[in-house]
TrEMBL record:
Pfam families linked to this entry: Polysacc_deac_1 (PF01522)
Keywords in alphabetical order: Signal
Gene Ontology biological-process entries: carbohydrate metabolic process
Molecular functions per Gene Ontology: hydrolase activity, acting on carbon-nitrogen (but not peptide) bonds
GO cellular component annotations of the record: extracellular region
Protein name: Polysaccharide deacetylase
Signal peptide interval: none
Gene source species: Blautia obeum
Residue ranges constituting the NodB homology domain according to the UniProt record: 302-361
Subcellular location: Secreted
Amino acid sequence: MKKRALILTAVLTAAALTGGSGYLPVTDGIRAKMIQNVYADAEDSKESADTETSDSVLDQATIMYQQYNYDEAIKLLKKQDDFTKNKDYMDLAAKCQIAKKSLVEYPLEKITHVFFHTLIEDTSRAFDGDSKSGNYNQVMTTVSEFNKIIQIMYDKGYVLVSPHDMATVNKDGTMSRGKIMVPEGKIPFVLSQDDVSYYHYMDGDGCASKLVLDENGEVKNEYVDADGNVLVGDYDLVPLLDSFIKEHPDFSYHGRKGILAMTGYNGVLGYRTDSAYKTGENLQDDQKKFLEDHPDFDYDQDVKDATKVADAMKAEGWEFASHTWGHMNATERSAEDLKTDDEKWKANVAPILGDTDMIIFAFGADIGDWEGYSSDNPKFQYYKSAGYDYFCNVDSSQYFVQITDQYFRQGRRNLDGYRMYYNPDMLSDLFDVSEVWDSSRPTPVPEM
């Protein structure tokens, strides 16, 4: 009961704030009126209650409230058998109704999309002067930089949304515009991370080695430090963002997290799940070395473990997109090449991560120019027929959003060493580069 009281106190305090939060002040008169409305509506929407305890229901509804999902919070509360007798439920439902009135529709064409590659935990190993250091410096972000970026964006009012909030697919395959309703002052944005496969070439370079479930069933990273110790914790974007949202639930709109753009040729999420590891055919040199170094490797177990991690991530609001199986340049390759590649993705990756209707192009190499996709574009025709409706390239502009009756398209902004070093002004709407720059990053960052 003490826990419930603390939660309710926090909710009541938030609901009473004015200004940037966008919530309306709660007077006794408003509270009484809203509670009367809740009572009046309760009987109409009553459903059989879940077997959850009162505390867990209130916890869930409170998170929904904090993440602007007011209708679902009210729905959950009202379906409890004791709703009309539980003051905590009634008060929270009333606060949801009040807060809902303060929401404003955010313009979809002004939603930015930022992305990262694998984060660097140990800069001394990533930036050690070998042949890979320059590329790491260009396209990667350090854990320190990521943490600062996310905190600053949160402080500015940014809120995580999904392309699926921005556009929806109709039963006939056409697309319709979505509607994102947030408190005044909040700024929706999309976040994605590329290549979360922990490729062989990254071994020993100061990055996480895989995503795992810890003893509590939470998604964390396995990380091997410089001394060879295997650690489990927050060493890359997924668990770092999970932990941040746990502390700041209002950073997520309706429970949204980010999107992982996944290849398949080295497996997924740090697990060697591509069929080549099972058949031993058409292996690259680093794949051969992996199998030689791991004579007890169990392919089927890796597939099972990767699937469990992916399922846990999806349950927590993460989404997956194709990044093409072989990290292909979609601009340069033929429609037939892309079809063959996508069939490999569907055979090797989809059984683990699930089907997806999103493709995030590797290299940002798009299948059409800025004017949009045409019906006679064979690459678009294939991807559309294969179930893809959401397409993302790389674009340095603040906003690039196209929503038609056939597809959703959005440009992504790279928040990496290259962009921060050469074009800090292009990121000023998000953060001040001087406030996040990791001093252990070598300069000058190599030119591309």
